[in-house]
Amino acid sequence: MNTPFNPFTLPGGEAPTCIEMLQLILDGESTREQLEYFVLHMEQCPPCFQSYEVDMQIRQLLKSKCCREAPSGLKEAIQIKLNGQINF
Amino acid sequence: MDEISRHVYSEEEKNHIFNEEFLPLIHSMYNFGYRLTLDADDAKDLVQDTYLKAYRFINSFQKGTNAKAWLFRILKNSFINDYRKKSKEPGKVDYQEVEAYYNSDEVDRQITPDLRVESLKDMIGDEISNALNSLEVDFRTVIILCDLEGFTYEEMAKILDIPIGTVRSRLHRARQLLKEKLSSYARSMGYKNT
After folding, report:
1. In this complex, which of B23, B112, B123 lies closest to A75 when CB atoms are compared?
2. What is the pLDDT of residues B127-174, one digit of tens each?
3. What is the ipTM metric for this complex?
4. CA B165 from chain center: how many Å?
5. Does A88 lie at the interface with B, CB-CB under 8 angstroms?
6. How close, in Å, is residue B113 to chain A by CA atoms?
7. Does A65 touch chain B (CB under 8 A)?
8. pLDDT in tens, B72-82
9. How far apart are CA A25 and CA B53, in angstroms?
10. Helix or strand or coil: residue B49?
11. Of A42, B27, B54, B61, which residue has the fewest beta carbons closer than 10 angstroms?
12. Structural domains in chain B, sorted by start
């Protein structure tokens, strides 16, 4: 790595591992600076690049296949039940 | 999520919060309920119970705070108290073992995935849903909260009543398990080098 400063560096000065950097990115907990660093890092680190691609594809699959909508009428059923409770 | 501070809302305010902030989240709530119970009828009942509880305890909701996280926490607690007992889930995972795994060198050796984007792109059926549903409920939960609902570590820690470090390690392990499941699907689909 030629990059002078790694924004993932831990407070004690310990260098982060690839998996630690990747997880922070995937979990949506990275700063913009860390994200920018990681994008550059991936260009030189094929395992990170592959892993990131796979994880993003899984996330896309999750979003397209694992989001069930509430059945129609559930909202109304809740409102009816609630009105019944409030009135009694 | 501050349980100490309470507000006394007028009926009009209560209804406004309920109709404008809580009810629009019905699809996310239902999906969470469904992924926890894995049963459409149970999910409906769980979501209904959650909304009724939310209205009953609406005075402990602080207007302007995260309604989604507040509702998800009630739903999760309702699931544990009322539904988990009757489900056929295996016992709880030994999280000390999970933490030990997370802190071990084994983790770094898995940076190279044995799963390819190409094989994932061919998973146009229920593979991902089946893989997610097959995970133990605590692992399933963090994947939903993070990857589908976009909650932060801090929000997840509050929803699940666990430390942030545990959220992180649980998420990491959940992703590994999901990948293992998907890898075996890829192999069964004929991908020799998954």
Report:
1. B23
2. 899 999 999 999 999 999 999 999 999 999 999 999 999 999 999 999
3. 0.86
4. 16
5. no
6. 6
7. yes
8. 999 999 999 98
9. 35
10. helix
11. B27
12. 11-86 (1.10.1740.10), 95-188 (1.10.10.10)
pLDDT tens for residues B89-130? Answer: 544 555 555 555 555 555 444 554 578 888 888 887 888 999
Secondary structure of residue A34 in the 3-state scheme: helix
Work out the mean pLDDT of chain A and round it to a whole number: 89
Kindly state whether A57 is in contact with chain B, defined as any CB-CB distance less than 8 angstroms: yes
HSE (side-chain half, CA atoms, 13 Å) at B30? 18
Q: Which of A17, A65, A72 best tests the B interface by mutation, with the highest count of B CBs <10 A?
A: A65
| Residue whose pair of structure tokens reads 């929000």 in the numeric block | B155
- C-beta atoms of A17 and B108 within 8 A: yes
Q: Would you mind telling me the total number of residues written for chain A in this entry? A: 88
Euclidean distance between CA atoms B39 and B29, whole angstroms:
14
